[in-house]
Amino acid sequence: MFKNILIIGCGLIGSSLLRGIVKKKLTKQIYIFEKSKKNRLITKRLFKKVKFLKNLDNKISNMDLIILATPMSQYKNILKNVSKYITDKNIITDVGSTKNNVENLIKNNSILDRNFILSHPIAGSEVSGPEYGNSKLFKNKWCVIIKNKNKKKLRLITKFWKKLGSNTVLMKTREHDNIFSITSHLPHLVAYNLIKTALNFQQKNKNNIIKFSAGGLRDFSRTAASNEIMWRDIFFSNDRNIINSIDMFIKNLKDFKKKIQNKNNKEILKILKNSKKVRKQIIFMKQDVAKPNFGRDDS
Amino acid sequence: MFKNILIIGCGLIGSSLLRGIVKKKLTKQIYIFEKSKKNRLITKRLFKKVKFLKNLDNKISNMDLIILATPMSQYKNILKNVSKYITDKNIITDVGSTKNNVENLIKNNSILDRNFILSHPIAGSEVSGPEYGNSKLFKNKWCVIIKNKNKKKLRLITKFWKKLGSNTVLMKTREHDNIFSITSHLPHLVAYNLIKTALNFQQKNKNNIIKFSAGGLRDFSRTAASNEIMWRDIFFSNDRNIINSIDMFIKNLKDFKKKIQNKNNKEILKILKNSKKVRKQIIFMKQDVAKPNFGRDDS
After folding, report:
1. Are B157 and B93 spatial neighbours (Cβ–Cβ below 8 Å)?
2. pLDDT at A195 over 90
3. Would you state the pLDDT for residue B210?
4. Are residues A187 and B219, on separate chains, in Cβ contact within 8 Å?
5. Residue A74: band (very low, low, confident or very high) from pLDDT cuts 50, 70, 90
6. Does the pTM of the predicted model rise above 0.95?
7. Which residues does chain B have within 8 Å of residue A141's beta carbon, measured at their own beta carbons?
8. What is the spatial distance between Cα A7 and Cα B146, in angstroms, rounded to a whole number?
9. I need a labelling partner for A48 at 20 to 30 A (CA). Which of A77, A215, B29, B211 fits?
10. Distance from CA of A85 to the nearest CA of B (A)
């Protein structure tokens, strides 16, 4: 499909891309640019044929596809270098979780603006690092691709994600950032703050409550173990939508509190039953497995 | 261990007790009182030797151990009947998630007060019904037993849960209800309200966002599919502690929102890093498995 692919940043996502690309034979040669020596060593051990770029220099112009897979706070510096060397023969894409910030970085640079197709695979884990990479990470997951007037390059990027097993969907930047503030960014923010609330309680009551986390908190702690650099970048990049979703959520919490205080049986049951219906839809849409969870000892 | 055990209510927990008791041979004869015909049929198919009580009548006095495993809103009526027939030879326990409300039901009835040892196994699932019952549900899970001056019966109930594989811990009612408002009740309430927020968004934007739930919302939807009757009862029974925990949580959300607005990098990173440490503790304390989650296709 390509002659040369360059992946910039080889953590969990970069390494999963690398594994998927190699497995599906999507390129003749694969290049990695990765600042961490440890990550380079892990990657080298896995794939002898990978070539590492020491700098983002004129070799860039030979890369048919360049994929940014670093935390988004590094995009600005990377793109400054990349834009010096690319031509209209190259395609750039990324895997960042918010898109308006990336669009802002490229819109005043015509060479980037013409050749950058923004994408966002809805895939990941609470663990980080190339050692956890998985060639199937993108399989049967959505990959959002941001609409672009360059139809040819849009088709090529769409084909690339499909080859990795993803279901692709086209969106506008605004729509993307709005939707994922609710389905992804708010849940993560909530998980982090639930854990913080438990820590506050523990400090105040001098009581080890973490050990009783199996009743619910445990499940949130997995989400709240996600990479802190990645999530700080998301919270800062999509701040307006996220703040709106926090406000919507706090309003619901306050309403629910009032319903508890008034022992509003009917309304509470309605909310709880509606949640169950959403769960059924999520399973029906194959976003999760139906298999119930009985805690750590189920098998 | 016992001659006759009666389980009142044979849903997920009741059926798991039944299976565990039969497997560990903790009684000569097991009795079930269950109002739902469907649940009785499922139970009968599984265990031919189970006897069903049609009414809570004088047969009660022959039961060495009586276990309440219904939603807590049914306790009052059940205990009215049970208290007519029990003597100091019987022991009663329950599996309810809040304890102050149960204590209030029994404290003015001396025969109940003398023979009721309150317990709460920290085990369950998002699914309901006897068909999901599992003899190992309580294995390696905490079971909280409420302190009681009747040391003999307290020892017997402790032994009972240990035989089912639980790790037991003694608590005061007040301590129990306070701790679990944070580690269990708040996380469930938050999950229900996250799903509600997503539904509100979907209605407002006429946009199907549920299908993009793999980025975080999905994991909360499992918790938010838990039994609505059970959870309504918990929210109403432990209202004061739960309202306090909602307030603590909203305060943290508002602080976090301010930190996003002020781009307070250092503070945000600190909260995110602390969460990751709690996750490590939870795994260390064997409240969850370390195995990372990569979404529905991991295996």
Report:
1. yes
2. yes
3. 86
4. yes
5. very high
6. no
7. 214, 295, 297
8. 57
9. A77
10. 32
- CA–chain centroid gap for A111, Å, is 26
The beta-carbon neighbor of A286 closest among B136, B256, B296 is: B296
Q: Which residues of A touch B166 (CB under 8 A)?
A: none
Contact A223 B219 (CB under 8 A): yes
Looking at residue A112, its pLDDT comes to 96
**How many Å lie between the alpha carbon of A293 and the closest alpha carbon of chain B?**
6
Domains of chain B (ranges plus CATH)? 2-171 (3.40.50.720), 176-284 (1.10.3660.10)
Strand, helix or coil for residue A117: strand
All residues of chain B having their beta carbon less than 8 Å from the beta carbon of residue A187 are 194, 215-217, 219-220
Segment (H or E) for A94:
strand A91-94
Closest to B237 (Cα-Cα) out of B72, B108, B13:
B72
Give yes or no for a contact between B223 and B187, defined as CB atoms under 8 angstroms apart. yes
Provide, as residue numbers in chain A, all residues whose Cβ is less than 8 Å from the Cβ of B144. 212
Residue A273 CB coordination number (10 Å): 11
- Cα–Cα–Cα angle for B209, A193, A213, rounded to 5 degrees: 100
Res A299: pLDDT = 37
B152 φ/ψ angles, rounded to the nearest 5 degrees: -65, -50
For residue A144, CA distances in Å to A27, A74, A97, A211, B273 come to 22, 21, 10, 39, 29
Would you say residue A298 has pLDDT above 70?
no
- Classify burial at B222, counting beta carbons within 10 Å of its beta carbon; exposed 0-12, middle 13-18, buried 19 or more: buried
Rounded Cα gap, residues B42 and B47, in angstroms: 9
Do B199 and A226 form a contact (C-beta atoms < 8 A)?
Answer: no
